[in-house]
From TrEMBL:
Taxonomic source organism: Sulfuritortus calidifontis
Family indicated by similarity: Belongs to the autoinducer-2 exporter (AI-2E) (TC 2.A.86) family.
Compartmental location: Membrane
Protein name: Putative PurR-regulated permease PerM
Chain segments annotated as coiled-coil in the UniProt record: none
Bilayer disposition of the protein: Multi-pass membrane protein
GO cellular component: membrane
Transmembrane segments: 20-43, 64-84, 150-170, 211-228, 234-257, 269-285, 305-336
Keywords: Membrane, Transmembrane, Transmembrane helix
GO biological process: transmembrane transport
Amino acid sequence: MQPNPAANRALLTLLVTAGGLYLLYLLAPILTPFLLAAALAYLCDPLVDRLEVHKLNRTLATSLVLLGLLLAFVLLALILAPLVQAEARLLMNQLPLALDWVQQTLLPWVEKTFGIDLMQDQAQLGDWLKAQLGQGQFTAYLPTLGEGGLAVLGFLVNLVLVPVVTFYLLRDWDRILAHLVGWLPRPVAGKTIEIAREVDVVLAEFVRGQIAVILVMAVFYSAGLWLAGLDYALAVGLVAGVLVFVPYLGVIVGLLLGSLAGLMQHGELTALIPVWAVFGLGQVLEGMVITPRLVGERVGLHPVAVIFALMAFGQLFGFFGVLLAIPASAALLVGLRHLKQQLD
């Protein structure tokens, strides 16, 4: 049997791709800051290019864009800090009342309705905790505390690493892309570049549309909650608007924060009705009017596909794995389109 060069190349390509994906999976714990940096560089590159058009040095343009990004994060943190402090104080104050309600109302109702005596189980749990504390058995959980310390240390390292990696990636973005193109084999270079450009177009449309949706919804929620008389309207509105890029997450988190803030401010559930009305109206407008007009069906990323991709890549790569979800979905979508064209 004569060797088939085309089949050998296809097999080699398949093996290299599989090995690369497996290596990517193994390196997932350390790749997250680099993925975040690459995502920030991709998003900020058009801004740097525009500054370069005005005769600014690439390094200076990169520094200005990253400085503006840092100032935006600081401003957002300053706006959200009072809300976080106030709601943490509310939760601490309400926790004893909630425990009393559970003991005096919920547990007796469960026992009366279902015949389950949770009060006895609660007493047994308390006795077990006292016994464990008395015997010093909780020292077995010290490794967990150590792991938590390592997680905090890793977070601080990433906090320093991400800006540094972002700076170098953003400054050398065009050269990096040119080098990557140079590594492509000639037989597949043309098709790969064509697919990459289509992916870039899909991502650009999706990102521009989502940024517009975030801005519109942040303004809507902030203004609506302000008209509803909520003290922390701006902070809650910004959180709900920013989280809109994950389907239903923005309205859920915003509704929870708004309800807690309203309860802290008024102390009555009836006062929360205007807050709930704002989020209900916002969800209807976002789903039926704003997202279809600003993002559009031409992008082709269905909300269910977005949710699945975010959860899948989050499972593989942690919190920042969601940064891979949308690009991977767009690339898969474009690849399927080309495969369909070849099959047709």
